[in-house]
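Contributing new records

If you add data, match the layout below exactly. Sequence lines come first and carry their own label; structure lines follow with theirs. Keep one chain per record. Anything else will be rejected by the validation script.
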Amino acid sequence: MSFRLALSGLNAASTDLTVTANNIANSATSGFKSSRTEFAELFSSTADSLSAQATGNGVRVASVAQQFKQGNIETTSNSLDLALSGSGFFTLSSGGALSYTRSGAFRPEANGFVVNGEGQRLQVYPPLDTGGFNTGALSDLQLVTAESAPQATTAVDMLLNLPSDATVPSNATFDPADPTSYSRASALTVYDSLGAAHTTQTYFVKTAVRGQWDVHASIDGTPVGPAQQLTFNDSGSLVTPANGTVTLPPYTPATGAAALAMTINFTGSTQFGSTFGVNSVSQNGYTSGRLIGIDIDKTGVVQARFTNGRANALGQVALANFSAPASLQKLGDTQWAESYGSGQAVQGQAGIAGLGSIQSSSLEASNVDITSQLVNMITAQRNFQANAQMIQTSDQITQTIINMR
């Protein structure tokens, strides 16, 4: 009996050493979760085992339990490296088969799909045309390779101050080439439907009517429509046009683009003091752009940045959680699969419903504590040696009995 008891101890200690060795071997593996050997006492199933005098029947390995303690977050230079701070798993797909991981080392492949080292694709919630994301569906994250399309300018916002003490220009006939025919001027860049840039000039001419100004516009030096009027009251506030907006006639550029049809909004402009100033000016057009980078925020929203200043959402990283993650099926390569014991995957977004936040340009390191593993190794070694000594002692006792005369 003592041989079998000691043998069970040897087997248990050997398993403990194997688990400890695996932990130490993966101490530098991104997203690795250490395991712990858990033991259980064995008793005979006979009636004698119900007695208070039962001596037991050895030991067995009850479980090799994974420890999902948070690992340290380490920064990297790759924006597609992702680390989870808190609960949850990244979702991966291989031909439709889902698996889950804490290792966020991702990279783009030849077709732009974001994959891990085994070629499995990172899953995201696809963007909606109306904004937001479709959290009811999963899709492969694919980086765009085409240029960002341009957008023609349709609206200009200009906030300025015209000097209240301005005089009527000496030349009563407006001529953009003659500075004596206008009081002040301003310029900004606008874009046509093909993304080509054009310069829009606005000229302000003080009239003989109190508080009244004529606004002339030209694009690339070509006059656009007749003069339009701005009128200010005694307090210097804009009163005409009533909505603060002037509409320019369509201008057809020589680039072959569609006609430019723009409005200029002067709302908030004033006629104060003696200083002309453009406080702010903006327009809603932009040229085409090339991809220059990928940004991923803490909620997992993936955006492609372009040289034209635009940022397009490509998706939101899909996370998953389980009611009993320690019961997940181990697949290797720091991946797990759903099992009966773990419960079904609960899909969600970072920072919501108990799921952790995402850090871009970071990786979660292994949660193995080398010091504690070395202590475990020494303990398991002592257990193994003690059980081996027990077998040797039992052998000596047996030999003594055999040699009795």
